[in-house]
């Protein structure tokens, strides 16, 4: 290679070419990282990064085109468990809005209802008010810690079985098999030219996709209003515009993500595969290919001729063909593995057919893999699950759950809020007495009207009346009727005798029913002489 300094011409204004690179006929004669501008796309080059082998050509595309995944039908314990989870989760999603729950004549009878208009959340016998949003926050925290617990114990089992993307993708893949046939038939159909028959088959299949997506979006809005009423209004054109917009968006996203993007959502869009690695260690159960047992690979015939030269893996590719994301588990842990364990079902069937022990691909920890490779006996599964991180997650998760159950059982269905007026803080009456004004909010959290009593305590000689009660009827206590699941706002006046100084006192709210629930709120009485 010639010295570039000998052939370098005088630089011209704006000429920023890298003269340390010699280019001959579009070929960069260097192994140093250089700009791809020295050659046109597709030209031969030896450019490479320090961690890469030398390249022979420049890449023409930055992204690889998606390769369709045609996973094969398989039967086994993990596949049957996926069927069970899919039926249960889809059943819960589509059936729950139609369940009824009797809460009395003053409350809705839908078992699970997010009543945004009245700011209530109903779940069977539980009713959550806006000021009790900490219960919802607690449920979300429990869900997050539960996800950490499952991941720490058995890897991405949530992704493999219960994630909505997985459930709907699995459903769509069963539609593919029903319409187009199993793996080989689908591959032939994809490669076939677009004939009238293929167009008709695709239109039929995509219509089923669309129907499932529409049912998905339609079921979601039923959680936010009375399901039978909204269902009727939706198809008669009387529903709110937001209902139609929500169904349209959810139908489009379900149709696209579940029908056409599938494994791309898990690999590229979902952040969880990248987060879950922080919750895995050498004691976590994950789907593992036992390479010390399977390698080197060879067919049954080769292994029969040379039994000591080949492992148990016969390179049948069944584990790859059944994978819903199209990965090869034999390449080790990877971001595309959702731990559905279908490869275990496929491999165990092959091992049974060729007369070799199951478990070439199996749930195992890295520690147990090392033990088994060394000829030792792996630990039982229950011992594997009881490691410190899993126990810690479970204790935290259980503690939050017990605390929420206790709070639900001990909560009061009567609540009082007191807001004193600040301008003016007090008024001097003609007889020398002192009056303060307050805004009281009486909350009835029962699904029936209740009579409640407000009493003034800690302020000797004080009298109470309101905008609807004449001053002549003032007394230390007053009674009010509060409708079911309502907050009644009361403008109240408290008058104390002359010469009463600033001091603290309390309002006591008592429900006048068999429960006799009470709520006491301490507030201040303003008077002359206070700071």
From TrEMBL:
<feature type="transmembrane region" description="Helical">
    <location>
        <begin position="81"/>
        <end position="99"/>
    </location>
</feature>
<feature type="region of interest" description="Disordered">
    <location>
        <begin position="24"/>
        <end position="57"/>
    </location>
</feature>
<dbReference type="InterPro" id="IPR014116">
    <property type="entry name" value="Cyt_c_oxidase_cbb3_FixG"/>
</dbReference>
<feature type="transmembrane region" description="Helical">
    <location>
        <begin position="391"/>
        <end position="410"/>
    </location>
</feature>
<keyword id="KW-0479">Metal-binding</keyword>
<keyword id="KW-0004">4Fe-4S</keyword>
<keyword id="KW-0472">Membrane</keyword>
<dbReference type="Pfam" id="PF13746">
    <property type="entry name" value="Fer4_18"/>
</dbReference>
<feature type="transmembrane region" description="Helical">
    <location>
        <begin position="241"/>
        <end position="260"/>
    </location>
</feature>
<keyword id="KW-1133">Transmembrane helix</keyword>
<feature type="compositionally biased region" description="Low complexity">
    <location>
        <begin position="33"/>
        <end position="44"/>
    </location>
</feature>
<feature type="transmembrane region" description="Helical">
    <location>
        <begin position="133"/>
        <end position="154"/>
    </location>
</feature>
<dbReference type="InterPro" id="IPR017900">
    <property type="entry name" value="4Fe4S_Fe_S_CS"/>
</dbReference>
<keyword id="KW-0411">Iron-sulfur</keyword>
<dbReference type="InterPro" id="IPR013783">
    <property type="entry name" value="Ig-like_fold"/>
</dbReference>
<keyword id="KW-0408">Iron</keyword>
<protein>
    <submittedName>
        <fullName>Cytochrome c oxidase accessory protein CcoG</fullName>
    </submittedName>
</protein>
<keyword id="KW-0812">Transmembrane</keyword>
<feature type="domain" description="4Fe-4S ferredoxin-type">
    <location>
        <begin position="301"/>
        <end position="332"/>
    </location>
</feature>
<feature type="transmembrane region" description="Helical">
    <location>
        <begin position="206"/>
        <end position="225"/>
    </location>
</feature>
<keyword id="KW-0813">Transport</keyword>
<keyword id="KW-0249">Electron transport</keyword>
<dbReference type="InterPro" id="IPR017896">
    <property type="entry name" value="4Fe4S_Fe-S-bd"/>
</dbReference>
<dbReference type="InterPro" id="IPR051684">
    <property type="entry name" value="Electron_Trans/Redox"/>
</dbReference>
<dbReference type="Pfam" id="PF11614">
    <property type="entry name" value="FixG_C"/>
</dbReference>
<dbReference type="InterPro" id="IPR009051">
    <property type="entry name" value="Helical_ferredxn"/>
</dbReference>
<dbReference type="InterPro" id="IPR032879">
    <property type="entry name" value="FixG_C"/>
</dbReference>
<dbReference type="Pfam" id="PF12801">
    <property type="entry name" value="Fer4_5"/>
</dbReference>
